[in-house]
Design brief:
heterodimer; A: 87 residues; B: 183 residues; mainly alpha; elongated
């Protein structure tokens, strides 16, 4: 956890932009099942990077940081499921 | 004993105003998440019920512009984080607010492309699309303007509070993107 906590902000931003680009590529080029999985995973990574890297909420409250990531995980999973079911 | 120190019986259980404000901030943020979460789940369900309308909606959406808007909003979040960590708060808040206004401009351009095609689709999905993205857009605009006002005289507490709200708005957009645009 400590290595994540100390992530420099430019690296967090770079990772967020990379994940956004990969998500757009996945939406254009992958079949529904891998597309759903990839988009759900990349979206969750972005949400976690925002909470841990930009907000650094885990330094104040790990419960609150976990709750935010859990909320994002639920919606990302539902989005991925809907995309995968569109086959 | 110091004459200005209240007796212990009077201080126990009295919350500080700072703690109260922080609690209020998180109640506000979670109520936003609850509202956006309900709308997004409704969008997912309607998309499952009516796949042809969802396909038409996706065909009309401007994905490259949504990607560019996402990049701008994330970069704006980067500047908000720098401000919250005490690095030149005034200028970083201004940069974050300008990023937010750039997002608003891009989204309005996207609407101008999308509206003619989308309004031809007869589905509740279209109403939900405008409700979710429009409500988010209003949040971005409102908080960007508040951020500019705070940049006038930034204090650590105000900067931290507005940055937390800004990150919450970023997070909502990161969930809107896969649910509405990337299907």
């Amino acid at each position: 956890m400590s290595s994540l906590r100390d992530l420099p902000l430019p690296i967090v931003l770079g990772a967020l932009l990379l994940a956004t680009g990969l998500g757009l590529l996945a939406s254009l080029h992958l079949a529904p099942l891998p597309r759903g999985l990839a988009i759900a995973a990349l979206s969750l990574v972005k949400a976690a990077l925002l909470v841990i890297g930009f907000m650094r909420l885990q330094q104040e409250s790990r419960v609150l940081a976990g709750a935010l990531i859990g909320y994002a995980a639920l919606l990302c999973a539902l989005a991925g499921l809907r995309i995968a079911l569109s086959a | 004993m110091n004459a200005h120190t209240p007796p212990a019986s009077l201080t126990v259980g009295q919350p500080t105003s700072e703690g109260g404000m922080e609690l209020l901030l998180w109640i506000l943020i979670w109520s936003e998440f609850a509202v956006f979460g309900a709308f997004l789940v409704a969008f997912l369900i309607l998309g499952l019920i009516d796949p042809p309308a969802l396909a038409k909606l996706h065909g009309a959406l401007d994905l490259p512009l949504a990607g560019a808007a996402t990049a701008i909003l994330l970069t704006s979040g980067f500047f908000a984080a720098r401000a919250a960590f005490g690095r030149r708060p005034r200028w970083n808040l201004v940069a974050a607010a300008l990023g937010g206004l750039g997002f608003v401009a891009l989204k309005l351009v996207a609407y101008s492309h999308e509206i003619p095609a989308i309004t031809a689709v007869e589905s509740r999905l279209v109403e939900l699309y405008f409700l979710i993205t429009g409500f988010h857009l209003a949040h971005v605009l409102f908080v960007a303007l508040i951020m500019l006002a705070i940049a006038w005289r930034p204090t650590p507490r105000r900067t931290g509070t507005i940055a937390a709200i800004w990150h919450a708005i970023d997070l909502v957009w990161l969930l809107i993107l896969p649910i509405i645009y990337l299907g």
